[in-house]
Amino acid sequence: MKLSDLGENRVVAALTRALALGADVRVGAGDDCAVIGRPRDARWQLLKTDVVIEGVHFLPGDDPRRVGWKALSRALSDIAAMGGTPQHALITLAAPPHFEMARATALYAGLRRAARRFGVSIVGGETARSPGPLFLNVALTGTVERTRCILRSGGRTGDALYVTGRLGGSRADKHLDFIPRLAEARWLTENFKLHAMMDLSDGLATDLPRLATASRCAFNLDESSLPKTKGCTVRQALTDGEDFELLFALAPRHATALEAAWPQHFPRLPLTRIGHLLPPSALRPPPFPGHDHFA
Amino acid sequence: MKLSDLGENRVVAALTRALALGADVRVGAGDDCAVIGRPRDARWQLLKTDVVIEGVHFLPGDDPRRVGWKALSRALSDIAAMGGTPQHALITLAAPPHFEMARATALYAGLRRAARRFGVSIVGGETARSPGPLFLNVALTGTVERTRCILRSGGRTGDALYVTGRLGGSRADKHLDFIPRLAEARWLTENFKLHAMMDLSDGLATDLPRLATASRCAFNLDESSLPKTKGCTVRQALTDGEDFELLFALAPRHATALEAAWPQHFPRLPLTRIGHLLPPSALRPPPFPGHDHFA
């Protein structure tokens, strides 16, 4: 059996099944970040690792500054999805020996720019020789107040489902320049009691079922309401992936307050109600296959 | 200018120069781990990232269980070198789509075995598609009492220099099965006031000058005293690399007590005094070029 036969969800599930976890691990593999701390601590630590690979997540001709920005921003998006604040990053750069130092410097310039903008300290940088493509791994820590830590698994039947921004078409351009939704997530968790949240990395068609499954719910998706990137079809909005927008679930009684307050604070970023969570008996398969890393 | 023209030391130094660091960063890039915490905190956090790459750190035919063991143990060795205790690990596995699931499972079996033995929780596992070789990145956190945190930079003129174990020949076999010196480092920092410590990853000829330079000292190395692996020459002991033994500096007045107590606690692991630190005016180049990842 090859990884491509199983698909990413089942590969990760099989590899991380029944890992022995210490008493201070609140959430292990399976959410956007790991969550560390004792049950009553005021703050918990968030841990995330994420890699971008030449030929998979970016192309050899892409501007290395934008690749560096993307590498850190992907991990930042996961910290945002937990409601957290990022803190410290460690960088692993594996590059071929003939790689130009100017390109490595430009990669780091992009990493530094994202770090500065979002208040991250880059506290370690390892380099290794790659006999193949360029690999750029980011390990990132963050912190979150216990009461504002939002998992994928807290959604409840009837919750309204929202996404920020517009979906689809990211791979044409936006995937190298996206803004991780840290400010939006912090505002949301300060002002509303979200039940579940995640970031959209593999496309709504893949990620919404993940949130619903983690919450032991089914879902209804109103495809006509989808906030599509200009020029994109519904299918593209569902399956292109790399949107790095927030998907979250909120009790419907708070929907009116949220929809009134959001545009006051984020006038340039759409917030769209796209459906709601259903009782688990209503389970149905997702409408389209989403992005799978091994497909 | 290519990475291979500069060499690893200068590449890392150039990329990590003048990184903006938060007030809670005690040590950034340049030591075995990053150190996070406020100056008077009783405990500090340690952060490390480390990668093993097929064709560089292991061969395609190597037993994947041993590769997994090595991947985690390399990072554990860096936690040991700070005097710390490991806590949480995040794994990034980038593998080609045709990679067999049984091999991925075996890699994880090796990771789990090292995690269980050294008290680590694996709290996250990401997989990605690699268009080239297998990459296995480990991000690891740890903790250390402030008073037992040992940097590379604290060595003083006259300090005795010690190494654990035997050096050289690791690449023949030991590099896949080595034991990170966590127990030894914890015992050392509990019982002795070490001035500086690091782990030997690139060979003593590369790593000893790093410790001496960080401590603003020169050094004397008694090559006739080197604890060589059976069958190895002095040159191999100095330059083979991947020993993953501890190198540390201690005030010479404590040498007798250390040499008397060590064999009581670690009867099967040699501890060898190999030289001492000198005033910086005595600076001289290392005797042999050590291992360089881009060479």
Explain what this protein looks like in three dimensions:
Two copies of one chain form a homodimer. With 295 residues, chain A is α+β, with helices and mostly antiparallel strands. Chain A folds into two domains: 3-147, PurM-like, N-terminal domain (60s Ribosomal Protein L30, Chain: A, 2-Layer Sandwich), CATH 3.30.1330.10; 160-282, PurM-like C-terminal domain (Phosphoribosyl-aminoimidazole Synthetase, Chain A, domain 2, Alpha-Beta Complex). In chain A, 29% of the residues lie in helices and 25% in strands. Chain A is built from eight helices and eleven strands. Chain A has helices at residues 3-6, 8-16, 64-81, 101-117, 182-191, 204-214, 234-239, 255-265, and strands spanning 25-27, 34-36, 43-53, 85-95, 121-129, 135-145, 160-164, 196-199, 218-221, 246-250, 271-278. In chain A, the strands form two sheets. A six-stranded mixed β-sheet of chain A has the order 1-2-3-6-4-5. In chain A, strands 8-10-7-11-9 form a five-stranded antiparallel β-sheet, with helices on both faces. In chain A, strand 1 (25-27) and strand 2 form a beta hairpin. In chain A, helix 3 runs parallel beside helix 4 (101-117) and helix 3 packs parallel to helix 5 (182-191). The longest helix of chain A is centred in the N-terminal third of the chain and has 18 residues, at 64-81. The two termini of chain A are 14 Å apart. The relative contact order of chain A is 0.16. Chains A and B meet through helix 1, helix 2, strand 3, strand 4 and helix 4 of A and helix 1, helix 2, strand 3, strand 4 and helix 4 of B.
